[in-house]
Design a protein that fits this description.
Blueprint lengths: L8 E5 L3 H14 L2 E5 L5 H6 L4 E5 L6 H12 L4 E7 L3 H10 L3 E5 L3 H18 L8 E3 L2 E4 L4 E4 L2 E2 L4 H12 L5 E2 H8 L10 H16 L3 E7 L3 E8 L10 H22 L2
Parallel strand pairs: 1-2, 1-3, 3-4, 4-5
Antiparallel strand pairs: 6-7, 7-8, 8-9, 10-12, 11-12
Helix pairs in contact: 1-5, 6-8, 8-9
């Protein structure tokens, strides 16, 4: 399986002929490289396939399914694993995720959903890889270091969490472009944003607070009310007494929701 860099290569372990037939048609139409297996294979064989994702139906593997999942996740930590299974219980799903699966989809399911979840898993895996090949990004007083997953002002770390850094990096890489909330969520969290989810706003507020504390003379992240956010360093005018703008007022509203959303946002880190 020789694919271009960045292309998804995955194997499907499933004997559900109807599901496999429909999914492979979608995969072929999308030009995805894939391999269909009817039974488990040694993890070493998966390594040789140079996969970046595996989709497996545990319910069709019998008692060996759990052992196989644990071995694969333990030996191939960089492999994204999505479990599809029919009639699973909460306990089974929890067990699978704790053994190392990245996602769990219950059958019957739409092939497009399976493909989207594979994409999300691979995207999250890629974003978690150290990007040492990229040099630091300097914006005003801010230095963004992808190789350290951290940002600095005058050599002092801002102490960003992993999610806050990914958010900052995503905005900075857009080079002044306005990113919609849904787009930011897709890029940083790795899957579609649920209706009413305010995680992006909550994390933007946290990130702004840390930037303001370390670099008070500059404003880096700007709100576009009703749309999203833009990263562009702008020097603050000292002593300004202008009334808060609509975007600033919107940020104040987000602050009021912070306590309620804190626990939910933490779970998504």
């Amino acid at each position: 399986m020789n694919a271009a860099p960045g292309q998804i290569r995955f194997a499907l372990i499933d004997t559900d002929s109807g599901f496999v037939r429909v999914l492979t048609k979608r995969l072929e139409a999308a030009g995805w490289e894939h391999r269909v297996l009817s039974s488990t294979v040694p993890p070493e064989d998966l390594i040789a396939m140079k996969l970046n994702a595996l989709v497996v139906d545990l319910s069709l593997l019998g008692p060996i399914g759990w052992e196989f999942l644990e071995r694969v996740c333990g030996m191939l930590p960089d492999l994204g694993v999505v479990v599809v299974s029919q009639g699973s219980t909460v306990a089974q799903r929890v067990r699978g995720l704790r053994l190392g699966a990245d996602d769990w989809v219950s059958k019957p399911c739409h092939p497009e959903e399976v493909m989207a979840r594979v994409e999300a898993v691979v995207r999250r895996r890629r974003r978690s890889q150290p990007r040492s090949d990229l040099g630091p990004v300097v914006a005003a007083e801010l230095e963004i270091r992808p190789d350290q997953f951290q940002a600095f002002v005058a050599g002092r770390s801002i102490n960003l969490t992993r999610r806050e850094f990914e958010l900052l990096q995503t905005l900075a890489e857009a080079e002044g472009k306005v990113l919609e909330r849904e787009e930011i969520y897709q890029l940083v969290w790795g899957y579609a944003m649920a209706h009413g989810d305010r995680s992006v706003d909550v994390f933007i507020r946290k990130l702004r607070a840390k930037l303001q504390k370390q670099s008070p003379s500059w404003s880096y992240i700007h709100t576009h009310f009703g749309v999203g956010y833009r990263f562009e360093p702008e020097h603050e005018v000292l002593g300004a007494t202008d009334a808060p703008t609509a975007p600033q007022a919107a940020d104040a509203g987000v602050a009021a929701e912070l306590t309620k959303l804190e626990a939910e946002a933490a779970e998504r880190r």
